[in-house]
């Protein structure tokens, strides 16, 4: 059979979709040739299939053999649209495929193809450890039939397990674990201690989330340095009893807080000092940070406390952000607020932003359900184009207009009434909330209304697969914080689809959003949980004019007296526009933050690459020994050649790593300090470059100077070890991601505070 006319028509319709930048016609033309090989390939036995797979060299062969391997290994025959997605990945694009369209299998066929086209090894980068392990294990039968090896890495993997996983043809790993392994490999003193091979190809799952939302997140390798707890705990105790309105005021956008004159007087009275005296800057900073933690960061919204640990919540996914922490003392301030010991940030030994790490792969492609809306950013930051893949079966989901209410209380009452009505009919409902606190409050309200529900949030995300799998069951009500990256399909009638026809007759899964997110993509991902593979379904969002998004970004566009019904439901078209406008503004703000953050990161990444090349030469050659022979010939002629090479390499690597850590610390201080120069109308970025470039220029001569000094001052024997020359590396290292500071840097906050003081808003 050839490709149906119906499928061709849908392809053409999707090619006309606004924002699509890739013409799928050339790939569509290959589908008949792939299908023509199906009968021949299906006649192979397993050994013949594996042999043929080893020789594949074209898209047609790769897709035909990949389809047959999936049929045998998983009892799934990939649809033509999945093959179209795989070919888009092979051609280096980001494939937009709707939820439930089989992205995992699509990526497996593409990974096999990249290996056969000489682009291996392939790393499939996921958003979390769970998906890395699940997808690797799930797809292993396909890879085995295709003659490839597959491995996976998670946070608990040992160095040997990591090395074995990265030695495979295809490795599934979260982007953070892959980045941390890269950073650790950059500090080895023996090449055999590396776990990764040279980076070649990355297939990025949830590409918009990783490449856009997390792109500016720095991954950090830190070394042990004693932490200071007293200042933050003292400051936390000082602000704990302060009251909003009397002692401090919070800005309408919820992103800044300021002492009132009464609040400042109360704090200074307890300390017995004038906080604005020059010698008290450190205490002023600590108090400001503590106030931000006290007033602006909320438990079960921005973070949870579990096992005596503060765990940050990823606002895009509603789940715990693994190993992430706030910078600039804010993490310690929140820990002090909760009565916990402050965890040390440590000395930064190495750091790389997610965007910079992805940029190290010569070939990058990806897939997601929502790429078009960030197509311009994917092109700007990664040079990637978007290919929109049509669904295998047309989507018949009914997306209702937003229901907008005047107040939050009216919205919540209407929301519970709607869920109660659906539940009475037996129609399954999935409610997406904005944070953990809201999900728990909604659950209380539903239980009071006689509606049992299951809650999925950051506190129980280890149970997510089981919870989501049953969200389509008859009568099910599931309340969840965001659905992006959950990685489990919702089947009508439950996981066994026992009541599929019954649920379909009721209209299928009904998705309700309890509010609009800062990103349309997150809303679209929530909607996409209904209407999977042509299933019936519906969606609607409940919004109030008191929602944070509207207050922060659309206050001026909401009419003062909008038309509304007696129950508070707003019927004014101008309000609909205001909500859409608020979301576009929020997206624009995030885009600008991404662009500005990356501008600072560019010079650091260039310097890191230059130093990494020098380190590689030191690690893999005798360049350090040759330098000592040239600069200190008398002592170096006296030593055995092998001993000299080992000594020179150890000393030079130590000083290079030591100076890079010092350089990173200096750049952090520079980054803070340039904001003061901005008060003098100087461009902070120009000032940052003006300081960062000369500092790096001095780095290489200093490495050589310290290496020569250590060599001259040390006596060497055959069993010499670096610690004899006090070349001691940190006794412990750990990794974490730096969460975006929602309130700017510590110095930003301090400047704002000083500015308010000078303008009189904070004076007595």
From TrEMBL:
Protein's name in the database: Protein translocase subunit SecA
Functional note: Part of the Sec protein translocase complex. Interacts with the SecYEG preprotein conducting channel. Has a central role in coupling the hydrolysis of ATP to the transfer of proteins into and across the cell membrane, serving as an ATP-driven molecular motor driving the stepwise translocation of polypeptide chains across the membrane.
Family recorded in the similarity comment: Belongs to the SecA family.
Primary enzyme class: translocase
Organism placement in taxonomy: Bacteria, Bacillati, Actinomycetota, Actinomycetes, Micromonosporales
UniProt cross-references to HAMAP family, sorted A to Z: SecA
Membrane topology: Peripheral membrane protein
Residue ranges constituting the Helicase ATP-binding domain according to the UniProt record: 84-224
Domain SecA family profile: residue ranges: 1-574
Location in the cell: Cell membrane; Cytoplasm; Membrane
Keywords: ATP-binding, Cell membrane, Cytoplasm, Membrane, Nucleotide-binding, Protein transport, Translocase, Translocation, Transport
Gene (UniProt): secA_1
Subunit structure: Monomer and homodimer. Part of the essential Sec protein translocation apparatus which comprises SecA, SecYEG and auxiliary proteins SecDF. Other proteins may also be involved.
Residues binding ATP: 82, 100-104, 489
Top-level taxon of the source organism: Bacteria
Pfam family, one: SecA_SW
